[in-house]
Design a protein that fits this description.
The protein has 136 residues and is an alpha+beta fold. It has one domain: 2-Layer Sandwich (Beta-Lactamase). 43% of the residues lie in helices and 19% in strands. The chain contains four helices and four strands, in the order αββααββα. Strands 2-1-4-3 form a four-stranded antiparallel β-sheet. The longest helix has 18 residues.
Amino acid sequence: MVRHDDIGADDAAVVVDAVREEVATRVAGGVAIAVVDTHGELVAFLRTDGCPLPSIVNAINKAFTAAREGIPSAEVGRRSKDQGFPMSNYGDPRYTTWGGGVPITRGGRVIGAVGVSGLPEAEDMELAARGAAEIS
């Protein structure tokens, strides 16, 4: 059963479609797009044509990290580096420091996250923010 504060399948599809459309119209290359619930568990996923295979797991892990921590995955990475906090301290190898994971909020509460991987990090971050903005 979906909790009312978790992203549902319909909203997840809106996020995926927004990123897919952006990639199709202005980006050269393929991406993986993952949308997860507040626990970091997969709700929706799409791999566009030309997406590098490692990007599949990376997109899911970026979304997982953003959902679990409630902040962008790049911020988790910055804090880990600045504070000397090893990522292994999280106790879950799915945590990542790469940018491209963005929380999705509704009413000031995190309801899930989107992760994008396959392009340079700055582009992944921009696309994930674009997707999250469709719901937030």
